[in-house]
Amino acid sequence: MIEVDLARSSVRTLNERLHHLTPRANELHWRVLNPAGAHNIAVGITQRVDVEIKGHVGYYCAGMNAAATVVVDGHAGTGLAENIMSGLVRVRGNASQSAAASGRGGFVVIEGSAGARCGISMKGVAIVVGGSVGHMSAFMGQAGTLIVCGEAGQDLGDSLYEAEIFVAGTVASLGADCIEKEMTQDAVEHVAALLDRAGITANANRFRHYGSARRLYNFHIDHASEY
Amino acid sequence: MCGIVGLFFKRGLAVPSLGRLLARMLSQMAERGPDSTGFALYGDAAPQGTFKATLHSPHAEYDWAAFEAELSATFPSAYPARYYGSQAIYTIGADRWQFFSWLTCHHPELVTFGFGERIEVFKDVGLPDAVAKRFGLEHRSGTHALGHTRMATESAVTTEHSHPFSTGLDLCLVHNGSLSNHNWVRQSLRREGIRFVTDNDTEVAAGYLTWRLGQGMSLKEALEAALAELDGFYTFAVGTKDGFAILRDPIACKPAVLAETDDWVAMATEYRAIATLPNASTAEIWEPRPATVYSWERH
Amino acid sequence: MMSASSLPQSATFSPETIAEIERAANEGLYKIRGFGTLRPLPSFDDLVLLGASISRYPLEGYREHCATDVTLGTRFAKKPIELNIPITIAGMSFGALGVNAKRALGRGASAVGTSTTTGDGGMSEEERSESKILVYQVLPSRYGFDPDHLRACEAIEIVVGQGAKPGGGGMLLGQKITERVAQMRTLPAGIDQRSACRHPDWTGPDDLAIKIQELRELTDWEKPVFIKIGSTRPHYDVQLAVKAGADVVVLDGMQGGTGATQEVFIEHAGIPTLPALRQAVEALQELGQHRKVQLIISGGIRSGADVAKALAMGADAVSIGTAALIALGCNGSVHIEDYYALGTKPGACHHCHTGRCPVGITTQDPVLESRLDVEEGARRIRNFLTVLTMEAQTLARACGKSHLHNLEPEDLAALSVEAAAMAGVPLAGTDWIPGKSRH
Known about the structure:
The complex is a heterotrimer of chains A (227), B (299) and C (439). By secondary structure, chain A is of the alpha/beta class. Chain A has one domain (36-226): Pectate Lyase C-like, CATH 2.160.20.60. Chain A has two helices and eleven strands. With 299 residues, chain B is an alpha+beta fold. Chain B folds into two domains: 2-42 and 127-148 and 162-297, Aminohydrolase, N-terminal nucleophile (Ntn) domain (Glutamine Phosphoribosylpyrophosphate, subunit 1, domain 1); 46-116, Alpha-Beta Plaits (2-Layer Sandwich), CATH 3.30.70. In chain B, 26% of the residues lie in helices and 29% in strands. The longest helix of chain B is centred in the C-terminal third of the chain and has 14 residues, at 201-214. Chain C is α/β, with parallel strands linked by helices. Chain C has a single domain (29-423), classed as Alpha-Beta Barrel (TIM Barrel), CATH 3.20.20. Chain C is built from 15 helices and 16 strands. Chain C has helices at 15-27, 99-111, 125-130, 147-152, 179-185, 205-218, 234-244, 263-268, 273-286, 304-312, 322-328, 336-341, 366-369, 374-398, 417-423, and strands at 32-33, 47-49, 70-72, 81-83, 87-89, 115-117, 133-138, 155-159, 171-172, 193-194, 225-230, 248-252, 261-262, 294-298, 317-320, 412-414. Chain C is globular. Chains A and C meet through helix 1 of A and helix 6 of C.
């Protein structure tokens, strides 16, 4: 276990160390103390290490993560795990705007609530939110799954491509081209499996399924009002 | 472009630690806004029949003594003036329009940063810790305060362009974002008699609220009207004599976090500023919804 | 009886305008096309260089060297990039362009020691293997965005906007979204791509500063970070880019091209390259950052004369997009029947958006693509870049310069009042710069 105290050391040094790991057993587990809302902590890891951050982080924590498991024991700022490629990023508190933005793979778990634009431009990541998500979540979501145990703010799934959204609570409003779809048995099992992986207890049957109506897939005058 | 913070104690007398707490919040926003720092405090009320004015001079070595001699010859004052380098607070027992006419006529070099029963406004070039020290923020008490750290866009980093902007009695506004129709709005407001010192978009928003409040709207109504008439991206934090309000535009891209306990409400661009407050860990934390006025008032 | 040639036509409702209104009424959708502005604009054509005279002596060609090198990214990057010539290939997506075009550009640019830039579809293996110096774009869409590509590139370019459509996002029509393009962009094949115009995880210079730091952190502060902006308010934008922490600013004027966008954008948004460049240089000078934060200008750069004039005005380098494609064969007089089939002809084609490029550049159709031979294309790019450089050197030597960077605004005169005002250069034969007080 390697402990790094950001009150005494810098994010730059921490990231540099995490980017240049040698495959030795004692470099697999990291604990970061006193993050104090700093930005860019644990950005761009490429190896299967565990990083636990004790406290609040700023923007882009675990940005572009690949393979690693990063846990934030606090709240996270804008862009948590943005463009995540693989691996797991978990926040025990809340995540601010644009969590998992353009994420291409991997798994993001937000035990609290997420702010606006959760999963914006998502491209394959799976996101599970224990609480609610803010407005414009999954905006232009191209691929992947967003599961929300609480409520969703307005304009959910605006301009959606093929990402799948499941919400258990109320949805304030649906965005352009986002419609409710059937909650099939396959969907229920998919949701249940992700909830289980996330370690979040919820009844998969209570979720409703939202996806693209696919009417904006080709420019056509009849949908001019959607623009 | 910047960081904004606000702290509002919901009840009771002036809180001695208000200044110290605000200074800590501002310190957390230094990275976002390294060029200037500003804050507005709502402290002790000026005695009946008087008002406070925060005046700003073009340089720190301004001869305030000479100015005060002239001022007291023309207007009686209830409390001694307080000086903070380039800024001074006067309590004036007179009709404020008379005072402002006199000031414009005799001392056009001085700018009024804020005026009212309780408000005091400080802003200056520099990082939050340095500016807070310059104005003795650590020792200030009050019931509520707003602050702002600025990343300047003009080549000259000027104090006049910093936030908060205060265009009305006890009113102040800090803003993170960028308005897109402020030029039209400024022209209309000028015709309504609102005066502007800069070409800054935030000053227009402050002027808009002053105008609406002057028409008899409540702060909530004025902010709701702003949604229809001010265009662009904004998170506004507004202070009035006994009130505090937050508003995000309908698209709401600029970040904002709110926190509330039994004692206080706080707002900041990043959670790290709120984390410095007592009992932050048990506060209710949420991000304000777009196009929704969140307001609190002391009674 | 009136002859047909003497019928008066309205300048306001010209034949082109009438045709466009008819099209709009028929189709109910805005006109989408590729290429850059078609209408005439004040440009570098309206500036001339003042060559040698009795007071200023020229350099001999060849023996008396005029150097052309430039280093980009000196401000913060551990590994700035060094180019042999101050002319780079601008960002154009794989998707808008076919893979042969990308390969030819990469090979040709590498042959003369300069860079190419990826585009809105991400980095293809072909471009990476052909381009010795590759600039990797970070766009609002983040199509195909991959940290491994960040690690593999030589420089990073955050795209805020481009000259053809400042404030608009990417566009690629369904006919060009083949399986491969779709797979790279994580989109269903054959749909019309809608793209975001803002980045998903930052808005505004305060957040941009943090985003730049994130990209630096990922690449251990090695690679230069460019910020690309379309020219609208260049004075503010350049200063904000500097404040946000850019190493290099790329400014794309109104004439800049695109693979596809709404025509109203191309023709009616943004300011021309000429005034944008002057404002950008002034903005850098005000901050004391001219030459410290390098400036690359693009948007209608066509010849070595344009290169010399842009450098004289204070740019550190120029970038070419449309001109490079024309060097590859765009609008060439071959396969003429295919131009006609598109409703156009060689010299007038701006139909990149259709995916039916007659010369195989802006297409994903393998049959059309095969018309562009990579080795031949690379040779043409190499030749064109060489000519641009030689032309610029010729003019610079005539002005007495041993390095292209020593060209200065005082080496220029303007031929029109507009150009004088926009470029901040006196009207030839006078000392008058409209809009500038003499005192």
